[in-house]
Amino acid sequence: MKLKIAVLEGDGIGPEIMKQGVAVMDAIAAKFGHEFEYTPAICGAHAIEEVGDPYPDSTHEVCMQADAVLFAAVGSLKFDNDPTAKIRPETGLLAMRKKLGLFANVRPVATFDCLLHKSPLKEELLKGADFVVIRELTGGMYFGAKYQDNDQAYDTNIYTRPEVERILKVGFEMAMTRKKHLTVVDKANVLASSRLWRQIAKEMESQYPEVTTDYMFIDNASMRVLTEPRYFDVIVTENTFGDILTDETSCITGSMGLQPSSSLGEHTPLFEPVHGSWPQAAGQNLANPIAQILSAAMLLEHFGLNEEGALIRKAVTASLDANVRTPEIQVEGGEKYGTTEVGEWIVNYIKN
Ligand code: GGG
């Protein structure tokens, strides 16, 4: 298969983890006879510094021409430490999602047996936990009207019926391919927008009679994903709740560095780690490349390359089982591996 891939490494640890993601894609291409053509493009803080825009038109053009976008992360301390900054790297990511119409962010949460003890949670609660969070990605507070002066600030959590219907459809259909259990997470006791979500979900239930649908307040869901993760199959939720909930799920997997995602919608699909750019670690060979590598696996699976995706997953699990791990999940007293070494180990596993 021939695929044109836009490669957006972004900021912080982005370039390091992307290098390993692309190396894995190359190893897959060589093994299975595929042709992956990469086009790099700038975004985030780098793009602000170079052209004054975190998602310039030139990058959008590259993304639109590609079959898929492989993205790493954006964000930089310079902007984090300057609350008055008018343009921020993160707005580039939001612009990209909006312009590409990527309204459905699919975030799988699965455990690795050898890492269960790394979680602050009880091992027996975690074993076999395997669910997907579908985060609405182009609406809600992140995109609603905002205002800020010295005395007052607001964000608007706005959702329209078509926006809610299309993301709930993704949730119901994803549930149909899995254990047929959908949990709609909201705050319908307080938020009008959540009540609209709940109303529309209830209307749609009859179209999916095989799916067991339940409703949970975000407060309760935040506890239940940690105390009873096996309860969940597919969670569908709004932009803000999904963002926070899937950072929380790193307590289940054992590290933020293990969680990949895909973003799907109207134009080119995008694949990126859930985590951000960890600027403090940039250039230090510390970051876990696995979320990026598993995002590459999701990219391949999106195009039906399931055997290829499965081989990447097998290689990742083998690396963790062999204790080839970055510092945050390293075995106590064990050998230290950096971003490069973990990536190279996985590439070699794929080649052999
Ligand atoms: N790879 C994800 C990333 O770069 N995250 C930084 C960020 O801007 N996060 C906000 C969000 O994902 O909505």
UniProtKB/TrEMBL annotation:
Pathway: Amino-acid biosynthesis; L-leucine biosynthesis; L-leucine from 3-methyl-2-oxobutanoate: step 3/4. Binds 1 Mg(2+) or Mn(2+) ion per subunit. One of its GO terms (cellular component) is cytosol. InterPro entries: IsoCit/isopropylmalate_DH_CS, IsoPropMal-DH-like_dom, Isopropylmalate_DH. Pfam families: Iso_dh (PF00180). GO terms for biological process: L-leucine biosynthetic process. SUPFAM superfamilies: Isocitrate/Isopropylmalate dehydrogenase-like (SSF53659). Keywords: Amino-acid biosynthesis, Branched-chain amino acid biosynthesis, Leucine biosynthesis, Magnesium, Manganese, Metal-binding, NAD, Oxidoreductase. The keyword Oxidoreductase applies. It catalyses: (2R,3S)-3-isopropylmalate + NAD(+) = 4-methyl-2-oxopentanoate + CO2 + NADH. Residues 4-346 form the Isopropylmalate dehydrogenase-like domain. Its cofactor is Mn(2+); Mg(2+). It is an enzyme of class 1 (oxidoreductase). The keyword Transferase does not apply. GO terms for molecular function: 3-isopropylmalate dehydrogenase activity; magnesium ion binding; NAD binding. Its EC number is 1.1.1.85. Catalyzes the oxidation of 3-carboxy-2-hydroxy-4-methylpentanoate (3-isopropylmalate) to 3-carboxy-4-methyl-2-oxopentanoate. The product decarboxylates to 4-methyl-2 oxopentanoate. Homodimer. NCBIfam families: leuB. Belongs to the isocitrate and isopropylmalate dehydrogenases family. LeuB type 1 subfamily. This is 3-isopropylmalate dehydrogenase. It comes from Xylanibacter ruminicola (strain ATCC 19189 / DSM 19721 / CIP 105475 / JCM 8958 / 23) (Prevotella ruminicola). The gene is leuB.
